[in-house]
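Step 1: inspect the first sequence and its tokens.
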Amino acid sequence: MVRSPSLRASRAANDAAAMLRLEAGRNPHGRGLIELVGELPTHSKIFRQRWAFHDVQFHRSSLKRLRHPVVGQLDLNLESMELPSEPGLTLNIYTAASGSPTADGLKMLASWAATQDLAEAQQAGPNPS
């Protein structure tokens, strides 16, 4: 199913507000979260509207679209798992469909990052160990 960019953006805005509201319920006295939720409505009418929905969700799976400055658009599958041994800690796993443009972009990004690490190591000179 192909969704329009505006539908994807609306879904992303709904999801972001719902996840912030979920976190606010988990950590109602978190200073950083209180400040963020207090500031966002003053800058974003969309956030103000979404926050007013009072939607609370933990998304175990979804699609995420990211734009990376080197490789461009990445459409990733997200799976989230709460870790029972660490209450409050969630493991997010992002994957790309095999053979997809996103998988190719991730391979290119890994190669680019390795090249950057090598260049930085060469600039730093020999390791005196």
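Step 2: inspect the second sequence and its tokens, then contrast the two.
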Amino acid sequence: MTPADTVSADRLTPKSLHVRDAAELVDRIRWIESIAGSDEHAGLIRACLDLLDPYRVSRQAAVLLAALYHLAGTGRPDPLRSR
């Protein structure tokens, strides 16, 4: 769950997981319990993973290494990024 007033919340979690108050939080938890194991639940998990993908450690490390190679002027190609 993400507080609805979080800056760029839509970049972190699907809109269906944004909550404004405790009552909405309880409603969303009940909704998730009701869809557990369903195709809808799998879709929600996939949407979360897709949004979180840019923040994976492997992706961040690849970007950092590429920046360091560039700053060092080694002319080394960008490291491969995992998917």
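Step 3: confirm your contrast with the notes below.
DSSP finds three helices and two strands in the chain. The radius of gyration is 18 Å.
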